[in-house]
């Protein structure tokens, strides 16, 4: 049930940006979707969402560990410990830069499916073929730079704030060192740290997220007409428009980030590795 609500939130806050005023609030969004499209409507865009964020997640977490190891060796153990926040920021930025190349095509398709009525395509395969036939590869990557602007700061905050939050939880709010807590308790700390980090991520990345959705839904221009640029869209939205839908995004990203860190650390525990943060 939680995954359904999160998917509705993804759709609803995307629609808030692309078509402001379409829903009064999240509850109105749920009722409208159920009334007009049935329960199946809740799952619009689930295909590209699952594929895109699975590829991005695997790349982001995997490359983060690789870059963190590489950069630690480059600067030496002493400097890596002394300047660990800078190390976390550099490793996460490098990892996200690569991961977004995997995410961008599915993000473009997801936004179109969730913010057009009727949906741009009924299936992931249909939508992929439709974009390729009408716009070519550029149709999948025209939002890449704004996606980097959204995701790279987001991931830098996500990883660095998580590492620091977990460190603070163990050193300030918990009475024992991390090593004295069992794995289940450590996973609980990971979940809490992930939720706090997710809230910060949502705030930092929100304006760029609004911009990405707008760019992916610009109408196709006719011969001789000029396509709107990112700066044109920003000027049209204004400062207030760039922050539309922040509330549901905070809830969505906080929950998703907490689940991601919980699942990631559960996997690490399952293969015999320590949980993240608080070392």
Question: Which properties best describe this structure?
Answer:
279 residues; 11 helices; 0% strand; globular; disordered N terminus
Structure in words:
The chain has 279 residues and is mainly alpha-helical. 77% of the residues lie in helices and 0% in strands. The chain contains 11 helices and no strands. Helix 5 (84-115) packs across helix 8 (144-173), helix 8 runs antiparallel to helix 9 (183-215) and helix 9 (183-215) crosses helix 10 (230-242). The radius of gyration is 20 Å and the shape is globular. The relative contact order is 0.12. Residues 1-9 have low confidence and may be disordered.
Q: Can you tell me the overall shape?
A: globular
How many helices? The count is 11
Q: Structural class, from secondary structure content? A: mainly alpha
- Low-pLDDT parts are 1-9
Give the DSSP E fraction (strand runs of 2 or more residues).
Answer: under 5%
How is the main sheet built? none
Assembly type of the chains comes to: single chain
Gyration radius over CA: 20 Å
Instruction: Summarize model confidence as the mean pLDDT.
Output: 84
The sequence of SSEs as H and E is HHHHHHHHHHH
Distance between the termini: 35 Å
Q: What's the total count of β strands?
A: 0
Helix content: over 70%
In short, what is this structure?
With 279 residues, this protein is mainly α. Helices cover 77% and strands 0% of the residues. The chain has helices at residues 2-18, 26-37, 46-75, 77-82, 84-115, 124-135, 138-141, 144-173, 183-215, 230-242, 246-270.
């Amino acid at each position: 049930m939680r995954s359904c609500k999160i998917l509705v939130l993804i759709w609803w806050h995307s629609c808030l940006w692309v078509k402001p005023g379409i829903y009064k609030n999240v509850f109105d969004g749920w009722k409208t979707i159920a009334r007009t499209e049935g329960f199946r409507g809740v799952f619009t865009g689930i295909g590209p969402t699952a594929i895109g964020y699975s590829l991005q997640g695997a790349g982001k977490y995997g490359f983060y560990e690789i870059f963190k190891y590489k950069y630690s060796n480059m600067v030496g153990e002493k400097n890596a410990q002394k300047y660990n926040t800078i190390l976390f920021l550099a490793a996460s930025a490098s990892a996200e830069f690569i991961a977004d190349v995997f995410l961008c095509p599915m993000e473009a398709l997801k936004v179109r499916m969730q913010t057009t009525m009727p949906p741009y395509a009924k299936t992931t395969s249909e939508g992929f073929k439709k974009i390729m036939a009408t716009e070519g590869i550029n149709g999948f990557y025209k939002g890449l730079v704004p996606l980097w602007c959204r995701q790279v700061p987001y991931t830098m905050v996500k990883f660095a704030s998580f590492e620091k939050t977990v460190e603070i939880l163990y050193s300030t709010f918990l009475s024992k060192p991390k090593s004295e807590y069992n794995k289940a308790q450590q996973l609980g700390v990971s979940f809490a740290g992930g939720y706090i980090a997710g809230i910060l991520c949502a705030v930092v990345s929100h304006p760029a997220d609004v911009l990405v959705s707008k760019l992916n839904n610009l109408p196709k221009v006719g011969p001789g007409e000029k396509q709107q640029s990112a700066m044109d869209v920003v000027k049209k939205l204004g400062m207030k428009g760039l922050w539309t839908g922040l509330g549901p995004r905070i809830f969505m990203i906080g929950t998703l980030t907490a689940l991601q860190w919980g699942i990631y650390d559960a996997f690490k525990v399952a293969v015999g590795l320590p949980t993240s943060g608080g070392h």
